[in-house]
Design a protein that fits this description.
Elements: H1 20-37, H2 41-47, H3 55-59, E1 69-70, E2 73-74, H4 78-91, H5 93-113, H6 116-127, E3 133-136, E4 152-156, E5 159-169, E6 177-184, E7 190-196, E8 202-206, E9 219-229, H7 243-275, E10 277-278, E11 281-282, H8 287-315, H9 321-345, H10 357-369, H11 374-386
Helix pairs in contact: 1-4, 4-5, 4-7, 5-6, 5-7, 7-8, 7-9, 7-10, 8-9, 9-10, 9-11
Organism: Symbiochloris irregularis
Protein name: Acyl-CoA dehydrogenase
Domain Acyl-CoA oxidase/dehydrogenase middle: 134-226
């Protein structure tokens, strides 16, 4: 893994679908991940630690801010931002999630829904990765049913008092800026607030014993009478529906992440099978090995094309929630199959994280669940196919807000 394998996954010249600018993003990101992250990341993954020392080097790639324009952000195309996440995930899923949370959740929320003062103060430093962002929506009792969140915001003179709990919040143990979603006790609508590191009453604790994305510092958050000033409220958030303005893009990025995992596992398996010999024969010469490789390659290419089409539909203004859920669910399901075949191809080495495949095998489990579980995303897709929502009991059928 320290010497990452050359790319072997582009069997259909999918690279031709990228613009010159997008290919440049892909190349610089690939070089960085192979040179700076691949040699060290297995040890960090094993220890469940985040490699903070690579962040200043990552900042030099000018990826911070993704699709946002101005305020020091690069203004990438959807595909440009996606291909950066793909190349990061090809080497390590945790690093991809770190950047996705920072760019496509925290920064994007501020960029789309924040005040001008908030944008001017925070976005330039976040784009330079001098400040790290987190996004706190999910709660211990509310995952897929995120619109039922129970954290509260009470108006007081000069600001707000936040109370409640959050769970599974990526980057939260070290984030400088956390976007917190809470229910306004006066209007009963959902608002969002910026909470800074060190705020009194804002306590984060790392979730231990994960088997996936171990380097991501997911946290439980407890808020006990946390005061934030009026200037900390995101003025563009007035209901739960406003989350969709952010999730429309983050869903796309999550649909791309398993594509990167599969690319990396396929590349690793191709090299391994050519180098490893049994019975005086390279494993790559065995028919069963070739059959599995062919299935892995076909799935990886199909996943890329699904995510690519979703990205183009978003750019054209035609993407729906049902489309995004279909691709996210399908890509994460198929990625598990690719991971399983890769694990089998490496035999005993398929359970050792040093060879990348076992690590990716585990990380795929997190992608299968976060930003909407596989099951909820398939029901959103089914709603698009039938016009009938299966999320709630039939006796309670009403238009429903679904976090997917």
């Amino acid at each position: 893994m320290a010497n990452f394998p050359p790319p072997a996954h582009d069997a259909f010249r999918i690279d031709d679908l990228l613009s010159p600018e997008e290919r440049a993003i892909r190349q610089k990101t690939r070089q960085f991940m192979e040179a700076e992250v691949a040699p060290i990341i297995a040890d960090y993954w094993e220890r469940a630690e985040f490699p903070h020392q690579v962040v200043p080097k990552l900042a030099k790639l000018n990826l911070g801010g993704g699709v946002l324009k101005g305020y020091g952000c690069p203004g990438q195309s959807i595909m440009g931002a996606a291909i950066a996440n793909v190349e990061i995930a090809r080497v390590d899923g945790s690093m991809s999630t770190f950047l996705m949370v920072h760019n496509s959740l925290a920064m994007l929320t501020i960029g789309l829904l924040g005040s001008e003062a908030q944008k001017e103060e925070l976005l330039p430093r976040m784009a330079a990765l001098q400040l790290t962002g987190a996004w706190a929506l999910t709660e211990p009792s509310n995952g897929s049913d995120a619109s039922a969140l129970e954290s509260t915001a009470r108006k007081v003179d000069g600001g707000w008092i936040l109370n409640g709990q959050k769970r599974w919040i990526g980057n939260a143990t070290f984030a400088d800026v956390v976007v917190v979603w809470a229910r306004n006790l006066d209007t009963r609508q959902i608002n969002a607030f910026i909470v800074r590191k060190g705020a009194k009453g804002f306590v984060t604790s790392k979730i231990e014993n994960k088997i996936a994305l171990r380097s991501v510092q997911n946290a439980d958050i407890v808020m006990s009478d946390v005061f934030v000033s009026d200037s900390a409220r995101l003025t563009g958030v007035n209901s739960f529906q406003d989350t969709n303005k952010v999730l429309a893009i983050s869903r796309i990025m999550v649909a791309w992440q398993p594509v990167g995992l599969c690319m990396g596992v396929y590349d690793m398996c191709v090299r391994y099978l050519k180098e490893r010999q049994q019975f005086q024969t390279p494993l790559a010469a065995f028919q069963i090995s070739q059959e599995k490789l062919a299935r892995m390659l076909g799935s990886t290419q199909a996943m890329f094309l699904m995510a690519w089409r979703l990205s183009k539909l978003h750019e054209a203004g035609h993407m729906t929630h049902e489309m995004a859920s279909t691709v996210k669910a399908w890509n994460t399901r198929v990625s598990r199959e690719v991971m399983a075949m890769g694990r089998e191809l490496l035999g005993g080495n398929g359970i050792v994280s040093d060879f990348l495949v076992a690590k990716a095998f585990c990380d795929a489990e997190a992608y299968h669940t976060y930003e909407g579980t596989y099951e909820v995303n398939t029901l959103v897709a089914g709603r698009g196919a039938t016009g009938i929502s299966a999320i709630k009991a039939r006796a309670q059928q009403k238009p429903t807000q679904v976090q997917a």
